[in-house]
Design goal:
This protein has one domain (3-73). 22% of the residues lie in helices and 49% in strands. It has helices spanning 26-37, 59-62, and strands at residues 3-12, 15-18, 22-25, 44-48, 54-58, 66-73. It is globular and about 40 Å long. The N and C termini lie close together (11 Å).
Length: 74
């Protein structure tokens, strides 16, 4: 089974917020993509950044943001 390294990147007027990298299997990766497609519909968005900082984005900011999912098969 393939492993995939991913990183969530939230981009908005305040900058680019790079999430902590994670190693997922194919099924987990598919679930992340499903969540990413619906992230604008949520009431907010939570993300652990590369340095371990935990941030919460309110719904109004999420509506004006872009979520990018980077991936690399390892």
């Amino acid at each position: 089974m393939k492993e995939i390294e991913i990183q969530l990147v939230l981009i908005n007027d305040f900058g680019e917020f790079r999430g902590k990298k994670a190693i997922l299997n194919e099924e987990q990766y598919k679930n992340v993509l499903k969540m990413a497609k619906e992230f604008h519909m949520n009431s907010g968005f939570e993300l652990t950044l590369e340095d371990g900082t935990f941030v919460i984005f309110p719904a109004d900011l999420v509506q004006k943001s872009i979520l990018k999912v980077t991936n690399k098969i390892i």
